[in-house]
Amino acid sequence: MKSLICFSLILLSLISVVEAFPGDGELVSIKDVSARNIREVAKYAIDEHNSESDDNLVFVKIIEGKWQVRSAILIYDLTIAAKNEGGATKNYKTVVMVSGRDKILYSFNEL
After folding, report:
1. How far apart are CA 20 and CA 36, in angstroms?
2. Residue 63 is part of a domain; what is its CATH number?
3. Buried b vs exposed e over 20-42: b needs ≥16 C-beta within 10 Å?
4. Per-residue pLDDT tens over the stretch 67-97
5. Residue limits of the Cystatin domain (predicted)?
């Protein structure tokens, strides 16, 4: 029950940053990609990618994002800009799944 309440609170905070509230599996554009919770997901993706690779990327900004709910899991599909060690900024496509406080980096690819 406690996790259901936490999940509900997460969904309520997301309503203000998306264009519409999605049905199960419906992909929806994120209206305010600069929102704190969206930035946290993007930074998590970069940190997790860095820990799984030899890269040392640094978050720059979120270019665009979409999200959906599938079986009570939030799935974020983000295009983010990050700087590499040489100072070059490149764009990356990442998918992060969130369930409660748990996050999983599903994919992270340079565009």
Report:
1. 19
2. 3.10.450.10
3. eebeeeeebebeebebeebbebb
4. 998 888 999 999 999 999 999 999 999 999 9
5. 30-111
